[in-house]
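User: Please predict structures.

Assistant: First:
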Amino acid sequence: MLGKTYLTKQASLLLEFARTTSDSDLSAKLISKAADLKSMADPLPDKDQDPRAPDIALDVGPSDPAER
């Protein structure tokens, strides 16, 4: 299953493409597809929202400077 972040990013890209084209039919189709992706993403949980900072690694000991 595709994640919420992925679907939202794809919808955003489609809207960006829709804004840059001069073809109104293509723009309408891109906007419609972006809306479809957004409706798929809305009910999904925000899995990437974790209370820990993203740079925190679990089960990792202190790094050995000699290994660098």
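Second:
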Amino acid sequence: MAEEQKAKAKSEQMKGKAKEAAGRAVGNERLTAEGKSDQAKGDARQAKEKTKDVFKH
């Protein structure tokens, strides 16, 4: 399960980067903001999983 969550975090980060880049390319501020939000969600999920790993070992 932990690996699944780590993969999901990475996926959210990459999706966010793509949305942000697309938003900037076309000048769409909302899309850029959504991209940043997705990246933040991925970062938070990744931090949570890393914390769980620290306490497991």
